[in-house]
């Protein structure tokens, strides 16, 4: 199983703000994974703290 997470962060944000937002995304979506079977093809859009779509995660079969 391969877990893939792709997130785009604002280039104009400070390094501290980018790190904070990425940390929040990892905590939230990591905790949310229990709602999925985690089988190939599973995935979801990823949203930032402003509820804007900033990426996605997915399970690949390899």
UniProtKB/TrEMBL annotation:
Top-level taxon in the UniProt lineage: Bacteria
Name by which UniProt lists this protein: Uncharacterized protein
Species in which this protein is naturally found: Streptomyces fodineus
């Amino acid at each position: 199983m391969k877990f893939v997470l792709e997130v785009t962060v604002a280039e104009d944000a400070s390094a501290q703000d980018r790190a904070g937002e990425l940390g929040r995304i990892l905590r939230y979506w990591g905790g949310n994974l229990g709602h999925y079977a985690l089988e190939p093809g599973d995935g979801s859009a990823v949203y930032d703290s402003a509820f804007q779509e900033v990426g996605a995660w997915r399970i690949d079969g390899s």
